[in-house]
């Protein structure tokens, strides 16, 4: 009488994972395609597969553990009244397998098309790709759908200003073709985009392209959530008297009005010049004024004195 636990070399309290792992190891060693001139290996492969069948069927495993059936799946006395396969018990009787039988094992057998994918590669050697013996694999008696091709991963570096303005990016695929990629709203460093059907070809259709976005840093822009920050240098004269200054933004330069008497550190806001949020709105650009003092301190003192006199005169006139 065969003991399926001994056949697979596992203990009686082995988990389903342990059973599958043991079977994978033995099947890789004993598979008929690797032992064409070794009938003993083929016979042992048959027994290993039968043991795997029984132990992965929870009902049959329980019956075996309770002594209701033997290792071949036959009822034991008194359940089978002393006869092999008696009492109308279904699923009993020893089976033997050859490499030509693997495609039609039906619902009672392990799904070898899945199992051997990790052992010999997709479909296994000499198995016709779609299933063993050149037939399509089955699961529970139903034809398994053909597998899609593998996904292909890409990394795309995007300039800071392009990411903020969502400028289309050109990417070259693994097949040499180039496409223009529209950046999604809410894009950030590490965002992943899926390109349907842009992976490797397969019997069930092409896989997908998976693009990971890497946003480059910028020389003077800095991201703050969905806003963009910029330190803007001003001369003392521009800060004291006010001026219209040219300011770079992610969408191009604009003219910004700086009020007279502006102090260093003051932040001005340019609406809608930041990153696009997921709802389609855009953040702002925050411009921090940075006054650059002249090298000649005496000149600075005279300028400040003149500015104070002008302010006092304006106050006296009620301006």
From TrEMBL:
Classification via CDD domains: DnaJ (cd06257), DnaJ_C (cd10747)
Q: Name one GO cellular component term.
A: cytoplasm
Annotated segments matching region Disordered: 27-107
**J domain residues:** 3-68
What GO terms are given for molecular function? Answer: unfolded protein binding
InterPro entries attached to this UniProt entry: DnaJ_C, DnaJ_domain, DnaJ_domain_CS, HSP40/DnaJ_pept-bd, J_dom_sf
Q: Where is the composition biased (Gly residues)?
A: 80-94
Q: Where is the composition biased (Basic and acidic residues)?
A: 27-37, 55-69
Pfam name, any one: DnaJ_C
Transmembrane stretches, start-end: none
Record protein name field:
DnaJ domain-containing protein
Species classification:
Bacteria, Pseudomonadati, Pseudomonadota, Alphaproteobacteria, Sphingomonadales
């Amino acid at each position: 009488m065969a003991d399926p636990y001994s056949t697979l070399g596992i203990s009686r309290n082995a988990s389903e994972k342990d059973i599958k792992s043991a079977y994978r190891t033995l099947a890789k060693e004993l598979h008929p395609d690797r032992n064409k001139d070794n009938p003993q290996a083929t016979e042992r492969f048959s027994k290993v597969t039968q043991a795997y069948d029984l132990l992965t069927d929870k009902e049959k495993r329980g019956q075996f553990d309770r002594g209701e059936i033997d290792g071949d799946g036959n009822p034991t006395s008194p359940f089978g009244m002393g006869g092999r396969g008696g009492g109308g018990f279904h699923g009993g009787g020893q089976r033997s397998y050859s490499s030509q039988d693997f495609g039609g094992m039906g619902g009672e057998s392990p799904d070898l098309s899945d199992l051997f994918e990790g052992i010999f590669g997709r479909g296994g050697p000499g198995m016709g790709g779609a299933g063993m013996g050149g037939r399509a694999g089955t699961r529970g008696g139903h034809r398994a759908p053909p597998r899609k091709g593998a996904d292909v991963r890409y990394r795309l570096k995007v300039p800071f200003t392009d990411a903020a303005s969502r400028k289309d990016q050109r990417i070259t695929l693994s097949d040499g073709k180039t496409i223009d990629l529209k950046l999604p709203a809410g894009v950030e460093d590490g965002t992943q985009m899926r390109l349907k059907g842009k992976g490797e070809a397969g019997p069930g259709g092409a896989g997908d392209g998976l693009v990971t976005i890497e946003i480059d840093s910028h020389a003077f822009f800095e991201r703050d959530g969905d806003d963009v920050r910029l330190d803007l240098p001003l001369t003392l004269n521009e800060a004291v008297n006010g001026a219209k200054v040219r300011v770079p933004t992610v969408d191009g330069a604009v003219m910004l009005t700086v009020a007279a008497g502006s102090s260093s550190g003051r932040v001005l806001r340019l609406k809608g010049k930041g990153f696009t949020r997921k709802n389609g709105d855009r953040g702002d650009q925050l411009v921090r004024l940075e006054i650059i003092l002249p090298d000649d301190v005496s000149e600075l003192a005279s300028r400040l004195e003149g500015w104070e006199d002008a302010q006092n005169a304006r106050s006296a006139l009620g301006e």
